[in-house]
Amino acid sequence: MNIKLLLLIHCTCLGLYGNRDRIRHVDPDTQTLFDANSVTFPLPGRERRSGKKDSNETKPTAPAPPPPAVTNEVGDGPEDLVERITELKAERTVLRDQVADLLVDLSVASVQLEAYSNERKELRKEIRDLENLIEEGPGTIFSGWVFSPKLKWVYLSPTTMPYIFSQADGWMLYEYGSNPRRVYYFRTEKWEVLDTPGDK
Predict the structure, then answer these.
(1) Is 19 part of a structural domain of the chain?
(2) Does the pLDDT at position 168 exceed 80?
(3) Among 7-11, 62-66, 71-75, 155-159, which is the least confidently predicted range?
(4) Quick one: 131 and 149 in the same domain?
(5) Which of 44, 81, 122, 196 could be disulfide-bonded to 18 (CB atoms 3.0-4.6 Å)?
(6) Which helix (DSSP H) or strand (DSSP E) does residue 51 occupy?
């Protein structure tokens, strides 16, 4: 056989089965690291390969307990959480009832607001009409001398209203919107009612 092949087989056998008389040299730091992780240092020898452990191997040390920062994060137990969930559900039910009541109130308020808005529009229109009436006056369909059984001969025109000139009593002021109708006599400085009971 080839010498190189024989040499290779010999080295392989020594590597697989080892030599009991060989001195095992293990770095203590490395072995401690392997022991802490329950891993044996892969030394040659049948004991290591067969899973046997040396009697002088050290047992792994117990890990340190969790620090307070970790334990404080856990907080209350599940029982406390269930109780808290029950309380939150009760609060949610109360809040939902309050929301329903507020929605009803909002609906009523919306209807009232719409009614007030319409009323305000009507009042504004009425105010504009009154302002126009004050500014322009109701006017008169007459222009010139007119005979009235109460006032006798008076002069009326759209440009002089609400002032009226009476042939007998001089200037008068007609009060718009008065009921019964009233006029102010500048000559006597008195208000007089034009309508008498039974007049239509």
Answers:
(1) yes
(2) yes
(3) 7-11
(4) no
(5) 44
(6) none
CA separation for the pair 186, 172 (Å, rounded): 6
Q: Is residue 60 part of a domain?
A: no
| Structural domain that includes position 31 | 3-49
Q: Which residues pair with 144 in a beta bridge?
A: 156
What percentage of the chain has pLDDT greater than the value 90?
Answer: 20
Helix, strand, or coil here: 200?
A: coil
134 residue type, one letter = I
Nearest to 181 by CA among 145, 142, 151, 146: 151
Q: What pLDDT does residue 81 have?
A: 75
Give the pLDDT confidence score for residue 137 in this predicted structure: 55
- Predicted confidence (pLDDT) at residue 200 exceeds the cutoff of 50: no
Residue type, 100: A
- Whole-number Å distance between alpha carbons of 181 and 166: 16
The Cα–Cα gap between 171 and 169 comes to 7
- Using DSSP, state whether 182 is helix, strand or coil: strand
If one counts every other C-beta atom within 10 angstroms of the C-beta of residue 124, the result is 10
How many whole angstroms separate alpha carbon 123 and alpha carbon 191? Answer: 31
The total number of structural domains in the chain stands at 3
Identify the band that residue 76 occupies on the pLDDT scale cut at 50, 70 and 90. low
Asked whether residue 198 is assigned to any structural domain, the reply reads no
What separation in angstroms does the CA of 79 have from each of 67, 74, 82, 86?
A: 24, 13, 5, 11
